[in-house]
Write a structure and sequence with these properties.
Length: 363
């Protein structure tokens, strides 16, 4: 007797504002979310503002070299403290000039010394848990969450093996990609290559060999999906690679639930995806491209342009069509293609992703 088919998620997971609100106050506040690369804030006082689960945050480097992350709100009367990127050796609220050390401690404010019983040591910005993962800074709004190495077992060592120069890398280019879809549509599309041979000709014919592509959930129960494949034959590659370097002929990607992925393109080229949510049917994908010390690199620049004009552009149309389709009264979730042999034409990774999505929403 055949096992029951595994079907896609109901449309409500992508269209229901109540589920979106549940995620904003649930899974997105209890998981590791990308803040920035340490190369964006290399010096004392350098800061970067960003948003996670509707919360405005900033990461700032201290005099001791440590990066700390805080909710971007003054403890006096709730004015936001910083905007964008910059340098602030003291954090001064624009509203009433309350001033904080980069450690978050209140230093002073106009006339507060004349307030009986006011002790500046009682006031501090609210800190957010922060981890440095190979130079990539992540935050978790849940103080009790397990560390990243428990969430993503062995990933740190594997990436260092594929990208031996990772400690020297810094951002060269960020590519911003607004998408009119639920964030899970975009993450799902990234997490399978069933659609690649017919929709991503440049990627499938000039970067990787689709017939060798596979995506596997972590065998140790971690929240990781590993993409593995081989590079295309050298005469078809759209950019040069040196196969004498270990893993230069391999492609591997590590998707870290729920919204980040490290990718190692053939030639040991590291690039990243991270997602930011804005509403139930809008998100932004950021593509990061890196070079040693952030120095100009013609091959990396070429790849960033090629990726944006082909794979990224193609995916925008796919995920936005899916979002429109999810609103159709005619949609009935169909069975996933779960080939026991796995491979590029199987959706085992989507089945695992859907499990995580259901657990996040339904508990």
């Amino acid at each position: 007797m055949n096992a029951p088919l595994t079907r896609s998620l109901d449309a409500r997971y992508y269209t229901d504002p109540a589920i979106y609100a549940n995620e904003m106050d649930g899974v997105l506040t209890r998981t590791w979310q990308f803040a920035c690369h340490e190369g964006q804030i290399p010096n004392f006082g350098d800061y970067h503002c960003f948003e996670v689960a509707g919360q405005n945050l900033f990461a700032i480097r201290g005099k001791d070299g440590q990066v700390r992350t805080f909710y971007n709100v003054c403890q006096h009367r709730a004015h936001e403290l910083l905007e964008g990127d910059g340098n602030a050796r003291l954090v001064v609220c624009p509203y009433h000039q309350w001033t904080y050390e980069v450690t978050g401690k209140l230093r002073g404010g106009p006339n507060i010394r004349n307030v009986p019983g006011f002790d500046v040591s009682d006031v501090c910005l609210t800190e957010v848990r922060t981890e440095d993962f190979l130079g990539y800074l992540f935050v978790n709004l849940d103080d009790d969450a397990a560390p990243m190495d428990e969430w993503f077992p062995n990933v740190r060592a594997e990436i260092a093996e594929y990208v031996p120069q990772i400690a020297q890398l810094a951002p060269l280019e960020w590519v911003e990609i607004p998408e009119s879809c639920n964030w899970k549509c975009s993450v799902e599309n990234y997490s399978e290559c069933y659609h690649c041979p017919t929709n991503h000709q440049t990627f499938a014919q000039g970067v990787i060999k689709p017939e060798t592509y596979d995506i596997q959930p972590d065998a140790n129960g971690g929240y990781v999906l590993r993409h593995v494949t081989e590079c295309q034959s050298l005469d078809k590659m759209t950019y040069p690679i040196d196969l004498s370097v270990p893993h230069a002929g391999d492609y591997q990607s590590w998707f870290l639930w729920p919204m980040f992925s490290f990718q190692c393109y053939p030639g040991n080229v590291l690039n990243t995806y991270h997602w930011r949510v804005h509403s139930v049917d809008r998100c932004t994908v950021w593509r990061g491209w890196y070079s040693v010390d952030g120095a100009e690199d013609e091959v990396i620049r070429q790849l960033a342009v090629q990726d944006r004009e082909t794979t990224v552009e193609e995916d925008i149309h796919l995920v936005e069509s899916v979002q429109r389709g999810l609103r159709s009264k005619g949609y009935r979730p169909g069975p996933l293609v779960l080939d026991p042999a796995n491979g590029v034409m199987s959706e085992h990774s989507i089945a695992r992703l859907h499990q995580w999505m259901r657990d996040a929403v339904d508990g």
